[in-house]
């Protein structure tokens, strides 16, 4: 957002990670009967307090809760060493999150495994743990969540030793060469899996057959698994609960869509960067529960969109970098639940925007596209619920900015077509809800614009790069107390003057250009 | 007795505490002396000591342990600060169970692991 160049990426797509960050609870009993313990010390107290004095927590329970708290703090402050870790052997830890933590290797896994049946979640992403280390977890049978993303020392043999962990509900092995036709056998026994993340696993071909019996699987991420072929996909046909499927960049084609067309519970489907054509989209017709659909950079145009007409639950539609033009948008005019649509780098022109002007559920609209002008924007003024509007490359002039006044709820706005002057910024100055404003590339903007912006005190991110803004205008930014990111690249502004402003008035500013 | 609103860590030393009624009948009256590895003595109500299942067994088993007949129990494995913390917990626990205590029992991070081992031994 801060930079002028890198564009696009939908904002409202459902977060793939939310299951992984979930906390887990256990149900059967373990050593010291700690199963009733919540996860932090203060929770112990909160739970037992109330109008009637409840059971008093034992000192053991209080200590275990404290140990967990201390462990997490040591990790958070980056001061846990291998030596310190030894002290936590057999301490009934439940969560061991060491993702990206420096120095994690097999010796650490021995301490992790010593938590035995207490252990519920482990994250050793980006570590040097090998098969030998991973193997130690095989007796931690209550493990519910395991993440080994980017662990390049783990092979298919290591993965297979985990096959007994049948209570695992969430598993993540991003970019891991252990996921092979052989290694994937481990998944077959994990019948409670609800979420499986195999993004960028290069050797996955032939492995998906082992997912056949995972009837509880709701989320599957196969993003950029280059080895996947249409023949692999047929093994997914029985996954009737699948609600999230990410196939971005998998080189799958129409053949696999036949399988997908039967997965009627799908809510989130990402087919971006695949060889998907208009004719393929007929297979999506039956997926009436779809809420988010990503067709970024697919080979689709106006005709294909006709097949999306009936997907009335669609909330988010990503059509960036497709051949979709103004004619195609008429097929979308009935999708009354659409909240987000990305039409950047499409063939859509001003005329087409009339067809989406009635979609008053829209919150986020991306029109980063050179064909869009003031006339197109004028057709959209009834979309007063918009909170995000991206007109990055659109040719909006000062006259067009008059339309922006209708979008009182805007939280983010990008207008970087180069045609805006200080007079246009006047129409932006009353959009008080703005937290992100990008006016870069408008070479005529002066310090006067900074003065106008000074009333937008909710701003968190501001970009006025490539303009005539100068050091003497910087003082106008002082009221922007929430500002965290400021970009004034290629202006008459020096790093030292920004630094002075930062020290004197803007304590929350963390990202600054130039620096 | 704990004064209301005071953090347990700041309370008066355990040996000054007096039991405040609502006796349960099997509780032996009187005091017991708990002695740390360094020889430091903590005099606590027997009722408080019996928050620990290990001490309860010692104090109530028929015939008794020789240590308890003499009214003292030695803990060669438990250091003074840990034993002090444990005594504080005994009183906190009694007050908590009777609804008189609502503040949290504070445990300093640096003693947590040692305290946990002692708590495990004392079954409390």
Automatic annotation (TrEMBL), chain A:
<protein>
    <submittedName>
        <fullName>Uncharacterized protein</fullName>
    </submittedName>
</protein>
<dbReference type="GO" id="GO:0031146">
    <property type="term" value="P:SCF-dependent proteasomal ubiquitin-dependent protein catabolic process"/>
</dbReference>
<dbReference type="GO" id="GO:0019005">
    <property type="term" value="C:SCF ubiquitin ligase complex"/>
</dbReference>
<dbReference type="Pfam" id="PF13516">
    <property type="entry name" value="LRR_6"/>
</dbReference>
<dbReference type="InterPro" id="IPR001611">
    <property type="entry name" value="Leu-rich_rpt"/>
</dbReference>
<dbReference type="InterPro" id="IPR032675">
    <property type="entry name" value="LRR_dom_sf"/>
</dbReference>
<dbReference type="InterPro" id="IPR006553">
    <property type="entry name" value="Leu-rich_rpt_Cys-con_subtyp"/>
</dbReference>
<dbReference type="Pfam" id="PF13855">
    <property type="entry name" value="LRR_8"/>
</dbReference>
Automatic annotation (TrEMBL), chain B:
<dbReference type="GO" id="GO:0009867">
    <property type="term" value="P:jasmonic acid mediated signaling pathway"/>
</dbReference>
<dbReference type="InterPro" id="IPR001232">
    <property type="entry name" value="SKP1-like"/>
</dbReference>
<protein>
    <recommendedName>
        <fullName>Elongin-C</fullName>
    </recommendedName>
</protein>
<dbReference type="GO" id="GO:0070449">
    <property type="term" value="C:elongin complex"/>
</dbReference>
<feature type="region of interest" description="Disordered">
    <location>
        <begin position="1"/>
        <end position="30"/>
    </location>
</feature>
<dbReference type="GO" id="GO:0006511">
    <property type="term" value="P:ubiquitin-dependent protein catabolic process"/>
</dbReference>
<dbReference type="InterPro" id="IPR011333">
    <property type="entry name" value="SKP1/BTB/POZ_sf"/>
</dbReference>
<comment type="similarity">
    <text>Belongs to the SKP1 family.</text>
</comment>
<comment type="pathway">
    <text>Protein modification; protein ubiquitination.</text>
</comment>
<dbReference type="InterPro" id="IPR039948">
    <property type="entry name" value="ELC1"/>
</dbReference>
<keyword id="KW-0539">Nucleus</keyword>
<dbReference type="GO" id="GO:0030674">
    <property type="term" value="F:protein-macromolecule adaptor activity"/>
</dbReference>
<dbReference type="Pfam" id="PF03931">
    <property type="entry name" value="Skp1_POZ"/>
</dbReference>
<feature type="domain" description="SKP1 component POZ">
    <location>
        <begin position="31"/>
        <end position="91"/>
    </location>
</feature>
<dbReference type="InterPro" id="IPR016073">
    <property type="entry name" value="Skp1_comp_POZ"/>
</dbReference>
